[in-house]
Design brief:
heterodimer; A: about 80 residues; Eukaryotic RPB6 RNA polymerase subunit; four-stranded mixed β-sheet; about 20% helix; B: about 900 residues; globular; binds magnesium ion; binds zinc ion
Chain lengths: ~80, ~900
């Protein structure tokens, strides 16, 4: 695999963004949850590495959806 | 101060140590006797009153409670010699095989042991099943010949079912085994799948045996006063007797052989006490010869604790009987036999409004319907109306009393048919008490229950609290379930004759007199004025069937669609359609087209019913469905409709043409075979010659069957009743009909022509290597003409495969459904639209990503833009 391969360029990898701390707090408040109640993603995940997210970050993922067209979800980055 | 633990952090399942067995024991049991002459439990006996009480009146000497409140308490027996616990025999065998007989270490080099430890630690952290490593460890350790730790050579170890071990031809006693297990280090135990913190290997050999509380093995006193003991008690008696004899013999210094024999006997009794179904030993029997039902037998199997008592509990306020159809009750209703209505009851609190009525129920009592079975005063006292002075009790009723009255018309009950595969398998119905012994249901609710009337039985549950009744009525009522959440269309709707009747009525040339029209409307429960007649001939007024059917539609209903009978002509002539397949409904009037499966058949596209549910609500839809089905049945009866075997008759010239086609195909097949044998067949890309030949033959034969079907269809016109049913989608298909009338066609096994049976041929009637149509399962007869014996045989081969497939498929899909339900059972949609699991973690941020409830959607979509435009622009 070439060194410069970027998973984010692959068609099957949806858009991942790191949320700012305020934005993350807002999301947790909106759903009245602790970060551990979010779906998780490992810090070793290629896409997490690619965007430089660290454990305790919350990612916003924008996906294409067969029902809604576009769907947004959030994932909590955990160690390893 | 006593602290009450609020949260269970975890539950460990381990083994009980002998010390723990003694610690929880309330008494040592030493004698096998049960009761003395006065019928009191003998102290230190098997029914010792410290083990709990089951006789009313006595008090438990451990907890002081009476029978019913005392949970029972364990005792114990000190075994004269240790015995093996059969339940752990596999683990014991694994330990013995994998360990050194001298130093007790696992027969693996230190480096290997280290490595396994690391793996197990990793698996444990990842939450994987680390104990499954044991199989691999035992496998490699038990093939090691020399101990890597002390150099001792392994001796051949033999396991004899169910509990015996022999090493180098000498028996290992349970004491020997226990001694060896004691030598396993804690670290090595982990590799053998044992967590030594909660289970030491040597505890798998019993030195003390817990005696179960009498509450789990109560004795029954027969009417004659003779006590009959539970099977477990019998078994415990055996154990204690032999144990006693064994210890006496040991003390007396009896010969080795006798001690050994008694020891083995003790092992047998303890083994069968745990499990009386282990292979290798005869099951323990009662004096009468009956096989004893001991601990494992209580748990195992269909009638066992798990499947019989926990998963399959019997419940109160329920009834079960055969179902039969009743086209005259609403889809919301259920016919309940009076006999059942007198037994199922509903608690009603007395108020100033209903108190007189309730008094009357009490006076009538449990046997005269509608009455009551029970009365409860505000202080909670129950009065059974069977044995009471009901007249007197009726006078004492005041506000606040609760009367358990019989089930009555209008009560809500839950109706269920197994297998309960989707939520429409349990729906709420309103009771209608009817004579007879069966539950009656409207035919339109057969599809969601998947019920028919060939002996099906169904269950009824009567919710007791007002809250439960309201919930059932609002959420579970049949009319609320018309649209299935599976595909967003109706699952409750017309079936079979409902479709036929509607078609006959709405056909182009159906004209009805005033009397007929009123007759039909009355049958549908509509007592309204007729519209203006469509035509007048010789002074007699006539109404069209379309006019009559239109009277069921709600005002303002607008719809345009193609009926099921539409032949998808290249150029649709719309309103001028020859077969009246173009349906136009304007402002609730059926102007063009016929009603058929497309209009209101369950599980079909169901345009009309679908529209009514979604635009006019479930009540309007229920009314429409109740009336439309009754009207259609009445119409079919009035206009006349029948079908018989004659409907599959075709004239001789059709027969001739069909035979020509079949002979032609036969010839083509023979020619293909000839070309193949001559080696001149061109192979298809990616296929061998043989495969190519098979494909070409199948093609030719399939085409010929289709052509025979087409020929038959030409002679089976729309005036043929069987054809009508097939074309409008009421029942059967044109394939069914042409197979009956013209030709059944190729039979297949695993998607290929039958080829196995004898060497090189399917049956001995054919030449070796015959590849012709006949020899490989082509049925050229029709069902009506009848099959030749050879054809019949091939047909049975294909038919058997179909049966096996369905059997296998239901088993597989049942298991898959079970796993899905177990995985998804505590997910739910919260009020904020998110899907959460039981710990509140988000699974989906918006249900289905679009937040649409499929049961309230338009075929799965949130909105149907075309319909809205049509309504705004066209309406
Ligand atoms: Mg049936
Ligand atoms: Zn007690
Ligand atoms: Zn050794
Ligand atoms: Zn058409």
């Amino acid at each position: 695999m070439p060194v410069e391969f970027d998973v984010r360029q692959h068609v099957l990898v949806p858009k991942h963004e790191i949320l700012s701390k305020e934005k993350a707090r807002e999301i947790l408040k909106r759903y009245k949850i602790s970060p551990h109640q979010l779906p998780i993603i490992r810090s070793s995940d290629p896409v997490v590495k690619a965007i430089g997210a660290k454990p305790d970050d919350i990612l916003r993922i924008t996906r294409n959806s067969p029902t809604a067209g576009r769907a947004i979800m959030y994932r909590y980055v955990i160690e390893e | 101060m006593m602290r009450i633990p609020k949260l269970i952090d975890r539950v460990d399942f381990g083994l009980m140590s002998p010390d723990e067995i003694r610690k929880v024991s309330v008494t040592k049991v030493v004698t096998a006797d049960t009761y003395d002459e006065d019928g009191y439990p003998i102290e230190r006996g098997i029914m010792d009153s410290r083990l709990g009480v089951v006789d009313p009146g006595l008090r438990c000497r451990t907890c002081g409670a009476r029978a019913g409140d005392c949970p029972g308490h364990f005792g114990h027996v000190e075994l004269a010699r240790p015995v093996v616990h059969v339940g752990y025999i596999d683990t014991i065998y694994n330990c013995l095989r994998a360990m050194c007989r001298k130093c007790g270490r696992i027969l693996l080099p230190e480096s290997k042991i280290e490595e396994y430890h690391k793996w197990i630690e990793e698996m444990r952290e990842a939450g994987q099943k680390w104990w499954e490593m044991t199989n691999e460890i035992v496998k490699s350790a038990s093939t090691t010949e020399k101990c890597p730790h002390c150099g001792e050579k392994r001796a051949p170890l033999k396991f004899e079912k169910p509990t015996a071990f022999t090493e180098s031809r000498s028996r290992l006693t349970p004491s020997d085994v226990r001694e060896r297990l004691e030598r396993i280090t804690d670290d090595d135990a982990v590799l053998l799948g044992i967590n030594p913190k909660i289970a030491k290997p040597e505890w798998m050999i019993l030195t003390a045996l817990p005696v179960s509380p009498v509450t789990v093995r109560p004795s029954i006193t027969l009417e004659s006063g003779v006590r009959s003991e539970d099977d477990l008690t019998h078994k415990l008696v055996d154990i204690i007797r032999i144990n006693q004899r064994l210890s006496e013999n040991i003390e007396a210094g009896a010969p080795h052989l006798i001690v050994e024999d008694l020891w083995e006997l003790l092992q047998y009794h303890v083994t069968t006490y745990f499990d009386n179904g282990v292979s290798g030993i005869p099951p323990a029997r009662h004096r009468s010869g009956r096989v004893l039902r001991t601990l494992a037998q209580r748990l195992r199997g269909k009638e066992g604790r798990f499947r019989g008592n926990l998963s399959g509990k019997r419940v109160d306020f329920s009834a079960r009987t055969v179902v039969s159809p009743d086209p005259n009750i609403s889809i919301n209703e259920i016919g309940v036999p009076e006999y059942i209505a007198r037994i199922l009851s509903i608690p009603v609190r007395a108020t100033e409004h209903n108190i007189e009525e309730l008094r009357n129920f009490i006076r009538r009592g449990p046997d005269i319907y509608p009455g009551a079975n029970c009365m409860i005063s505000p202080d909670g006292k129950r009065y059974d109306l069977r044995y009471a002075d009901r007249e007197e009790l009726a006078k004492t009723v005041e506000q606040g009393f609760i009367v358990e009255r019989h089930l009555m018309d209008g009560d809500v009950v839950l109706f269920n048919r197994q297998p309960s595969l989707h939520r429409m398998s349990i729906m709420a119905h309103e009771v209608k008490v009817l004579p007879g012994r069966t539950f009656r249901l409207n035919l339109s609710v057969c599809p969601p229950y998947n019920a028919d009337f060939d002996g099906d039985e169904m269950n009824v549950h009567a919710p007791q609290r007002e809250e439960a009744q309201a919930e059932a009525r609002i959420l579970m009522r049949v009319q609320e379930q018309i649209i299935s959440p599976r595909f967003g269309g109706p699952i409750i709707g017309g079936i079979q004759d409902h479709i036929t009747g509607a078609y006959l009525l709405t056909r182009k040339n159906t004209l009805l007199t005033r009397e007929q029209s009123q007759q039909l409307l009355a049958a549908a429960g509509m007592f309204v004025d007729l519209p203006k007649p469509a035509t007048k001939e010789k002074g007699v007024e006539y109404w069209t069937g379309k006019q009559i059917f239109s009277m069921l539609f709600p005002k303002g209903l607008n719809l345009t669609f193609e009926a099921k009978i539409c032949e998808n002509c290249a150029r649709c002539t719309k309103e001028e359609c020859e077969i009246d397949a173009y349906v136009v409904i304007q402002d609730g009037q059926l102007l063009h087209g016929v009603m058929d499966a497309r209009s209101y058949k369950a599980l079909d596209r169901c345009e009309v019913l679908d529209r009514i549910v979604k635009d006019y609500g479930t009540t309007a839809a229920r009314e429409f469905l109740d009336r439309a089905t009754k009207l259609s049945i009445a119409a079919a009866a009035m206009l006349g409709f029948t079908t018989s075997i004659d409907d599959e008759d075709i004239p001789p010239e059709a027969k001739e043409r069909i035979n020509e086609v079949l002979e032609d195909a036969q010839g083509k097949v023979n020619k293909l075979i000839k070309i193949y044998n001559a080696g001149e067949l061109e192979p298809l890309p990616g296929r061998s010659l043989r495969e190519t030949l098979e494909m070409r033959i199948m093609e030719v034969l399939a085409e010929s069957r289709d052509r025979t079907g087409e020929i038959a269809e030409k002679y089976l016109g729309l005036n043929n009743h069987a054809v009508i049913m097939a074309r409008i989608g009421a029942r059967g298909s044109m394939l069914n009909l042409t197979q009956m009338a013209a030709c059944v066609g190729q039979q297949s096994v695993r998607g290929e022509r039958p080829s196995r049976g004898y060497r090189g041929r399917t049956l001995p009637h054919f030449k070796l290597g015959d590849l012709g149509a006949e020899a490989r399962g082509f049925v050229s007869s029709s069902y009506k003409d009848g099959l030749t014996p050879l054809e019949f045989f091939f047909h049975a081969m294909g038919g058997r495969e179909g049966l096996v497939d369905t059997a296998v498929r239901t088993a597989q899909s049942g298991y898959m459904q079970r796993r899905l339900i177990n995985a998804l059972q505590d997910l739910r949609v919260e009020y904020d639209g998110t899907v959460r699991d039981d710990r509140g973690a988000v699974v989906q941020f918006v249900y289905g990503e679009d937040g649409v409830d499929p049961a309230h959607s338009d075929n799965g979509k949130a909105v149907n833009v075309e319909k809205i435009i049509e309504r705004v622009v066209g309406g």
